[in-house]
Amino acid sequence: xxxxxxxxxxxxxxxxxxxxxxxxxxxxxxxxxxxxxxxxxxxxxxxxxxxxxxxxxxxxxxxxxxxxxxxxxxxxxxxxxxxxxxxxxxxxxxxxxxxxxxxxxxxxxxxxxxxxxx
Length: 118
Prior knowledge:
InterPro entries: CMD-like (IPR003779). This is Carboxymuconolactone decarboxylase family protein. It comes from Arthrospiribacter ruber. By secondary structure, the chain is an all-alpha fold. Helices cover 79% and strands 0% of the residues. The chain has helices spanning 3-20, 24-36, 44-57, 61-73, 78-92, 97-116. The longest helix is centred in the last third of the chain and has 20 residues, at 97-116. The radius of gyration is 15 Å and the shape is globular. The mean pLDDT is 95.
């Protein structure tokens, strides 16, 4: 199993367990998150780029992987994603660099896996 499958499987399994708790606050928060990234006055692609930059600055590797996957689905290309990386690095500073490395690795896997679908 590769890094993408591992991440998505784990995330899915844990989200199921979390939702099974039937906690109203957690369910509402998850719903809020889902609706925040839906098409609106700002398109999905732009929202995912914002989410990716914020996740990098906040140094949340799981969030970075999630938003990279969504950026890939939204059709970002390598040049666009590296511009987002540059914004996040400028805002967050050198502490973002380890997360940048892992983000580049994950993006390359997404590109590799995506090319298999063609």
